[in-house]
Design a protein that fits this description.
The protein is built from 25 helices and no strands. It is mostly helical. The chain has a domain of 384 residues: Na+/H+ antiporter like fold. The protein is globular, with a radius of gyration of 30 Å. It starts with 15 loop residues before the first helix and ends in a 6-residue tail after the last helix.
């Protein structure tokens, strides 16, 4: 950045046109997001379209300087979106699904790159150009993925954990591809394997450093501070350690430190943001956080007056204990990373920074040069290939006969299919009843109680005589149900989890545009600016970024509709993948 000779920036009042453009832009970003999210859970698409309309591709109402400022602020929003995704990481679920996440990520990387070699015959690209296009399309938009999962409420489910982990791995590989593509644009004599391997090695080193720091630095220091806070709860240090300011400062310091270290070391800042959030979540879950005795205000007058009697005194003490436990739980939740984020950073992110990020994607779409007939149909064909290349990732969540045990890690017993539990219950209950000796009248009245007689003192002889008949009918119904279950085939696993996963992986977004723009600026796509290969790749990135969240929103809407008809049991639709 060139040094400026000005001592200060002169202040000028913005004109009314600038004010109206800014007000309409910010308000519409939030309004269309709320409206489309309410219908299809993909308000980010409307924000991208608004960025196209207000930015350089459309009306050019914002101006270049303001667009650049929005891009910079939007990238801060992307960092916070990815950081929030790290905060929502469940390490237990991640550990249980690590191999599955690796399989999904590998599929989402290899298949698009392999299918991109169709560009050799489609647009006459070279092998290097096809590889560069595949590198741009192998990524998954982290911001889009996290936003769709948050809007749909699936971020904490087992499927959400697999999707988040796979998208993060795709992003790491995509950001490695940024360096690869950048190096491929240089002369081959300057090409070095070190510059290609550096982002990979730095990413692995960053993970190792964060793990060691959390285990051998953060844990002992936290335990030591907790002892000080417990021993001196009324001292200045005790009050500081119990305040809400300290966790916020620590969390922001961890995030900024990880970002700075990662970027200067040569790897992805987004990966560092995700790793910082995940580390804070591990710290919240595994490091003990003893609380100071809460300061309880004077009890209300009605509680004191109700405590004068012996019976009411016991009730008032229970009320006081309940209120104290509620205060303790409230203090505990204030210090966790997710709660600090929700209290301080969530509103600026959701109202300003996140809309700016998705609008900035719209700034980079060259709409005016993409509608030549030859470019359109080639772009649609390539989009179809890239859509299929990511959609096949959903096959990892589909059970294939004989392969389920080898393609998945063992799942806990509590995640068993509801149908298997019901079948086992019927098969175990029916033989016990058939093998039991015929009960007498007294035994029958005890073993098969009538709900209508729960409030009655005795049972009439007519009811005792009718009990064996009702039991025989019960046995008959159970036997018929067991025969039906045995005769019918096993209920197939729902295809909704695989479809949601595959469609959520389709969106390329910011990383795809970044890799494609670097390849274009380095001349890999050819010497012609905005050449045919670049436009076809841009078509694929843009349409995939639109179609993926749109389909995910429609699927989530359908899942919620089925949940409402099944009594709100998500497991009936998503199976084990809907478990949080």
């Amino acid at each position: 950045m060139p040094a400026s000779t000005e001592a200060a920036l002169p202040y000028h009042e913005p004109d009314i046109i600038t004010i109206l453009v800014l007000v309409s832009f910010v308000l519409l970003l939030n309004f269309v997001n709320h409206l489309v999210n309410h219908v299809l859970y993909c308000g980010l698409l409307a924000q991208i379209l608004l960025g196209i309309a207000w930015g350089t591709p459309g009306g050019k109402w914002l101006g270049h300087d303001l667009e650049q400022a929005i891009v910079d602020l939007g990238y801060l929003g992307l960092i916070l979106i990815v950081y929030e995704g790290g905060l929502l990481t469940s390490f237990k679920a991640l550990k249980d699904n690590l191999l599955l996440s690796i399989g999904v990520a590998t599929t989402g990387i290899c298949v698009p790159i392999a299918l991109s070699y169709a560009l050799l015959s489609l647009v006459g690209a070279t092998a290097l150009q096809a590889f560069a296009a595949g590198a741009a399309l192998c990524s998954t938009s982290l911001g889009t993925t996290f936003s769709v999962l948050s809007a749909s409420g699936l971020s904490t489910t087992r499927m959400g954990v697999v999707l988040t982990s796979a998208a993060m791995m795709d992003d790491v590989v995509g950001l490695v591809m940024v360096q690869v593509i950048s190096n491929l644009g240089i002369a081959t004599s300057h090409f070095s394997v070190v510059t290609v391997l550096r982002p990979i090695l730095v990413s692995l080193g960053l993970v190792l450093v964060m793990l060691l720091a959390a285990r051998f630095v953060a844990m002992p220091v936290t335990i030591w501070f907790n002892e000080l806070r417990t021993s001196q709860p009324e001292g200045k240090l005790g009050r500081l350690l119990s305040s809400r300011v300290l966790p916020l400062g620590v969390h922001i310091a961890v995030l900024i430190g990880a970002l700075t270290a990662a970027i200067y070391a040569g790897t992805s800042g987004l990966f560092a943001a995700y790793l910082a959030g995940a580390t804070i979540t591990w710290w919240d879950d595994h490091v003990p956080h003893p609380l100071c005795p809460p300061v309880v205000s004077a009890p209300p007058a009605e509680i004191l007056s109700s405590g004068r009697g012996s019976g009411h005194a016991h009730e008032s003490s229970g009320t006081m204990a309940t209120s104290q436990s509620a205060i303790q739980g409230q203090q505990k939740t204030r210090s966790t990373g997710a709660d600090v984020f929700e209290q301080v950073l969530a509103q600026p992110l959701r109202r300003i920074l996140s809309p700016f990020f998705f609008a900035s994607i719209g700034f980079s779409i060259p709409v005016s040069r993409m509608f030549a007939a030859d470019t359109v149909w080639k772009g649609i064909v390539y989009t179809t290939l890239m859509f299929v290349g990511k959609l096949v990732c959903g096959l990892w969540l589909v059970r294939f006969s004989g392969l389920a045990g080898t393609l998945r890690m063992p799942r806990p017993k509590y995640l068993g299919s509801p149908l298997s539990h019901s079948t086992a219950a019927v098969s175990s209950a029916a033989p016990n009843r058939n093998e039991a000796s015929p009960p007498g009248p007294a035994e029958t009245s005890e073993s098969v109680p009538d709900p209508n007689d729960a409030s009655k003192e005795g049972v009439s002889p007519q009811q005792n005589d009718a009990s064996p008949t009702s039991k025989s009918q019960d046995n008959k119904v159970l036997n018929e149900k067991q025969k039906t279950l045995q005769a019918s085939p096993v209920k197939p696993l729902s295809l909704y989890p695989g479809c949601v996963l595959g469609c959520a992986m389709v969106a390329r977004g910011e990383i795809g545009f970044l890799i494609s723009a670097i390849a274009e600026s380095n001349g890999i796509y050819g010497d012609e600016p905005n050449g045919p290969i670049f436009l076809v790749v841009t078509w694929a990135i843009m349409l995939c970024t639109f179609i993926g969240p749109l389909l995910v929103g429609a699927l989530v809407k359908r899942i919620q509709h089925l949940d409402n008809h099944s009594g709100g049991a998500r497991s009936e639709v998503l199976g084990v993948w809907g478990v949080t």
